[in-house]
Amino acid sequence: MTWVLDNLDLIAELTLIHLRQSIIPILLGFVLSVPLGWVAWRYKLVRSSIITITGLLYTIPSLALLILLPSLFGYNLFSDTNLIVALTIYAIALLVRSVADGLDSVDPGVRQASTAVGYGAFRRFFAVELPLAGPVILSGLRVAAVSTISLATVGILVGVTNLGYLFTNGYQREIIAEIFAGVVAVMIIALVVDGLLVLAGRALMPWVRTGSGERAVRVGVQEAAA
To answer: Where is the ABC transmembrane type-1 domain (predicted)?
Structure first.
C-alpha cells in the first residue's frame, strides 16, 4: 500500500497513456468493422470467408503480431502506432461478426416499409438498419473494448509504455503492490469504458429499454413519408 501511495503520479500517468492507446483502436475497429460487417451480411457468398478470415486474426499471438507488423509496414517496433495497429486488428476480429449478426436481426418487414416510403439504400442503412442492429453491435463493442484494454498491456513486452510497465517492473523488483496496482488500474479503465458504452447505448437507443425498437423506427419511417 505504501508503494501505491508513493507512486500515485506514475500510476495516473500510465493510466492516461493506457487509456489513449486503448480508445483509439476501439474506435478504429468499430469504424472499420461496420462496412466489413455490412458486406458480410449483404453478400452471402462471401459472408463465411469474411467472418472466418477476420475471426482468425484473433488467434494470432499478440507478441508475434507486435513483432511482425513493423517489418510489414515499416514503422517503429517500439512506437504507440505498432500497438494501436495490432489492437485495431483484434478489435476488427471481434466486431465484424457482431455487425453482421446485428444486421441479420433486423426485421425484413421494417426494411420493406422504409423502402416503400422512399428510403434509398444509404439512408435506410443509417436511419433504419444500423439503429435496430445497435443492441447486438453494442454487445460486441463492449466485449471488444474490454479485450482491447486488457491486451494493451502486452505492449510493454516490445517497449511500448503503459500500465503493463507496472506488471514487468513489479515482477522484476518483486513488488507485489506494484503488480496489484496495475491490475486494479486496468480493471478500473475497463469498467469505466464499459459503463460509458452502456450509457451511450441508452442515450442513442432509448427504445431498447422499452423493447419498442422496431415500432419506434416504423413510426419514424411513417413520419418521414408524411
So the answer is: 15-197
* Distance in angstroms (rounded) separating the CA atoms of residues 149 and 151: 6
CA distances (Å), origin 138, targets 40, 92, 117, 225:
18, 14, 28, 29
Contacts of 163 (CB under 8 A, 6+ apart): 14, 15, 17, 18, 152, 153, 182, 185, 186, 189
Neighbours of 182 (CB within 10 A): 25
Listed by start position, the domains of the chain span: 2-225
In this structure, are residues 98 and 140 in contact, taking their beta carbons and an 8 Å threshold? yes
Domain range 2-225, its CATH number among 3.20.20.140, 3.40.640.10, 1.10.3720.10, 1.10.10.10: 1.10.3720.10
Q: How much is the pTM?
A: 0.88
